[in-house]
Structure formats: structure tokens, C-alpha cells
Amino acid sequence: MDALEILSDLENVLPYFQPIFSADEQQVIAYEVLGRYQMQGNVISLGPFFHDDQIPDEYKFEVDILLVKKALEKVMALDEDFLIFLNRNAELLMYGHGEPFLQELLGFEKRGLSLNRIVLEISDRNYQGDIDQFDHLLQYYRTYGIKIAIASIGSESHHFERIGQLGPDIIKINLQALKSTATGMYFNDVLFSLSLLARKIGATLLFENIEMSYQLQFAWKNGGHYYQGFYLHAPEKDFISREYLKHRLKEKFHDFISYEKRKLEAIYTTAAYFQAKVQEVVIKNKKSGYESLFQALIKEMDQIAFRMYICDEDGFQKSANIFKGRDGWSLQQIYLNKNWSWRPYFLENIIKMRHEQKGRLSDLYCDIETGETIRTFSFPVNETDYLFIDISYQYLFEHDRLL
């Protein structure tokens, strides 16, 4: 892309607007401003221009500030209060110590634009400058009501530290990772941690690059408040009606809700089935010792479970593991007396079982030893001891609503 050609033809530098939809209202809540260049009847992205390290920052800033002006002029002409996402990499934001850009925004504020509507979508992955100065500038912008979004979080867990440092208002999650088998396998785990972090710091999750229905469902299921992507609407030079997708999104959400309800019903029914089956075996073998209990459970759970053990209320293992391998069931004595209280939710589940006096079926998780996706059914054997039964992936797969 010829930078000088663009700089000599700024009239054809255009802002395009990609709508962002909200989950709660099912309508357009914001627009992301994207740079375009009209050349010989074709409209091309200015992304390569801004990402080209050979183009001087002052050239990029000139084009970028023009895009911001043109975009905000169109925003001012429309009597609506949607958010405006402006992309800024660290180098561009630090140009002139951030003052020229801020002065442009303040000029629009004097004309009636609330800076609470501005969201700076930042990227500092390859920034070589002083990161403390950069963070200080962001905090300075925030004093004017400007919001901060961290852009394009995919499967890279090293961004967690930056999120914790900046405490952004919005975290953008790039769903391109779902297309890759390599990254998609671990994407759920990273996203779960990310959603917990977002909840802790009070950030909103925005899922971008939604190109298919299953990605929208994934975003909805995983706590996405905002959605963006070609599946919903492509970038255009004009704004669209806020109600553009309201009916369609309501239908989609209804389908998602119905599916999740059926899945939750299946989990509840399975937990009740395990409760009845295990409780009957435990009652029959209450006075026979744990070895007899395990032998009875193996007969009942042979096609369901692959590991069983008993812990006390503090997480210390009071039995060996009873493990099912290729050659059948065997004892794993090395696990005797190991402690599992450090595991997430372990003590919480113990207390719930003690008070409710019934078993619990866990969420899906990856087993450390086998690497497979499993669930665990836990059950109070008596006042101090608790039985744990690991359910095999094969069983979950055969009962697909459990996955």
C-alpha cells in the first residue's frame, strides 16, 4: 500500500462502522470505527497501512486523526447515544504524548459529544516504549470519562497480567481461535479463567469475529455481553437501525436457552440417577468396609466410572484409588493419604454435601492423569467421609448432553 498515494488523496480516506450488539437489549449498542480507502471504485482496508512498520508514525497519525474526525462528525449528526470504539495501538496513542488526539476529542466534547461514549480499543503487544508512561496516559484519559478496551484477546494467556494491570472496562475476545483445532482445545479453559478475571475487575466481555451461528452461541454461553462480527453485520459507511437484529437475536437466544435447559435437565437427571444407584450400594455395604463397597460399586458402575476413592472432610484420601485401565480394575496405593483440599471448589462441595446430604455432579474438566474431559460424582458416605467417582469420557460421549 503506497502511503504517499493515500496522503495525497485524503478525501478518499473513509470511516466505516461495524455495529456491536448487546445481549440484554438485542440491539446495536456501539460501533467500531474502521479505516477504509476508496481507490478506483474499490474500497480497501487501511489495516495494512497502519500495521506497516516502514510508514512513519506522523503519516499514520495524520490519516488516523482524519478518520476520527470524519467518524465523529457522522456520529454528531445522528441523535443517538451509542458507544464509539476507536482503535489505537500504543505507538499511535503515544504520538505527541497523547495530547493531539485528546485535544481533538475535547473539541468534539465542546460541541456536545460526551466522552463517556468513547471507547479506546488499545493494543500494546509489540510496544517498545515506556509501558508505565503508556499506562499513565490511559489513566489520564479515563479522568475524562473515556473507556478502555483491550483488543483481540484470543488463546494467549500471557495477556492476563496486562488485564490485571490496566483493569479495562471491556475485554475483547477474538473467536478466530475456535476455528483452530490446536488452540480450540484449550480455548474453553483460557476463556473460563478470563471470564472469572473480568468478573473480579468489573469488565464487560465483547466477542468479536463472530462468523457463524455456533460462535454466537459460544459467546452467549460464556458470558458475552457484546457481540460483533460478519455473521451479525459487516462494516458499512452508514449506521443501521438499532433494532436491526432484535427479532433474529431474540429467536437465536430462545434456541440457545432451550438447548441449555435440555442440557441442564440431562445433568440433573443424571445426578439423580447416580444418587439413587450409589446411595443404594452405600446403604447395603455400610458395615462391610470400603473394600466391599468398592467391589459392589464396580459391579454397578463398571461401564460408567474409571476411578473411585474416598476422602475425609479435610481432603485427605482414606483409600487407595480404584482405577480402571485396559486390563480392568486395579488398586493404586500411592494415592493413599494424599490431600486434595487445594483443588478449586473441593471444600465448598464438601460443605454443600454435608448440609444437603446428597451427592453432586461436577462441571466438565480435564483429568490431570488421563488428559480426558470428565465429570466427578461425589457422595457423602457418612458424617466424615466422602466418595468420589470419576465418570469416563466414553460415558459422557454416549450421553452427549453431558458434554
User: How many β-strand runs?
Assistant: 16
What average pLDDT do the residues reach?
92
Our count of helices gives: 13
Approximate helicity band: 40-55%
Q: Sheet with the most strands?
A: 8 strands, mixed, barrel
In CATH, what is the class of the largest domain?
Alpha Beta
How are strands sequenced across the largest beta sheet?
A: 1-2-4-5-6-7-8-9
How many distinct folded domains?
A: 2
Strand content: 15-25%
**What is the succession of H and E elements?**
HEEEHHEHHEHEHEHEHEHHEEEHEEEEH
CATH superfamily of the largest domain: EAL domain
Radius of gyration: 27 Å
**Given the C-alpha coordinates, what overall shape results?**
elongated
- How many angstroms separate the termini? 47 Å
- The CATH topology label of the largest domain is TIM Barrel
CATH architecture of the largest domain: Alpha-Beta Barrel
